[in-house]
Amino acid sequence: MLKRYPWSVLTLGLALVIAGCSTPLIPTPATPVTPEPTNLSIRKRQVVAYVNSGQYAQEIARVALEANKHLVKRATKLAAANRKLAVVFDIDETTLTNYRHILANDFGYVPRIWDSWVDEGLAHAIIPVQTVYDTAVRLKIDVFFITGRKESERAATERNLREVGYETWTGIHFKPVNFEGTTRGFKTDVRRKLAADGYLILANVGDQLSDLEGGYAERTFKLPNPFYQID
C-alpha cells in the first residue's frame, strides 16, 4: 500500500531541493596561515652578532656626532640671545650601558636582579654620547637626565653617573615609585615643564621612541637599541 504524504510536506521538500540546486557551491576560504616567527634563540644570537660586529657602536657614534654638531651650531648661533638652553638625555642604553647585565640574564628582565644591578652601580658610560654631554657642559648648556628609573634608585644612579664621568647636571628626573602612567607620558610631561620654565631644549637624546616622542625639543636623536622596547 502506497504511503500518502500531505501536500504541504511534499511542497516544502520540493522547495528545499530546488533551493539547494539553485545555490552555487562557494568554497570556504582557507584560513590564512601565520608564518612561524624566527626562533627567539636565533634572534638573541643575531643581536649579539650585531653588537660584536661593531655595527651597534658605529651607529651610536654616528648619531652622537650629529647631536654634537647640532649643539655646537645652535649654541653658537644663540650665544647672544640670552636664552636658557638645555639638552636632555635618557640614561639606560643612552648615557649608560647595561649590556653586561643584559647578557648575564639572557636578555630577560627580573626586577630583583635589575634592582641589585642598579644598586651596585656597575654600568659603563657610552663614550660617544658622553662626548655630547661634555660638549654641553663646555658650552654651558644645562644638562637634564629624564629616566624611567624609579625615584628610589636616585642615590645609586647618581653615584654611577659621577663615577663614569657624568659629574655635573642641572637636574635628574626619576619616575615616582608608584607611578602608573606610561614612560612616554612621563618624559613628555617633564620636558613640557622645562619648556614652561623658559628652557629651549636644543637636543633630546634617547634610545627609545618613548624617550623622544611628544615634542618640547628642537631636535631628537634616536640611538639604536636592539635589546628591549619601552612604551
Helix-strand layout with pairing:
Elements (H helix, E strand, L loop, with lengths): L6 H16 L17 H13 L2 H23 L6 E6 L6 E2 L1 H6 L6 H10 L3 E2 L1 H12 L3 E9 L3 H10 L7 E5 L7 H14 L2 E8 L2 H4 L6 E4 L9
Parallel strand pairs: 1-4, 1-6, 4-5, 6-7
Antiparallel strand pairs: 2-3
Helix pairs in contact: 3-6
3D architecture notes:
The protein is built from 9 helices and 7 strands. It is of the alpha/beta class and 231 residues long. It has a single domain (41-222), classed as 3-Layer(aba) Sandwich (Rossmann fold). The protein has a 5-stranded parallel β-sheet with strand order 5-4-1-6-7, sandwiched between helices. A two-stranded antiparallel ribbon has the order 2-3. It is globular. Residues 1-19 have low confidence and may be disordered.
Brief description of this entry?
This protein is α/β, with parallel strands linked by helices. The protein has helices at residues 7-22, 40-52, 55-77, 99-104, 111-120, 127-138, 154-163, 183-196, 209-212, and strands spanning 84-89, 96-97, 124-125, 142-150, 171-175, 199-206, 219-222.
Feature tags:
alpha/beta, 9 helices, 47% helix, globular, disordered N terminus
**Largest sheet, order of strands side by side?**
5-4-1-6-7
Q: What is the total domain count?
A: 1
Mean pLDDT level: 90
Number of distinct helices = 9
- Structural class by sheet pairing and helices: alpha/beta
Can you tell me the CATH architecture? Answer: 3-Layer(aba) Sandwich
* Contiguous uncertain segments of 5+ residues: 1-19
Which homologous superfamily in CATH is the superfamily?
A: HAD superfamily/HAD-like
The biggest beta sheet reads:
5 strands, parallel
- Beta-strand level of the residues, as a percent range? 15-25%
- Rough outline: globular
The CATH class is Alpha Beta
Q: Give the % helix.
A: 40-55%
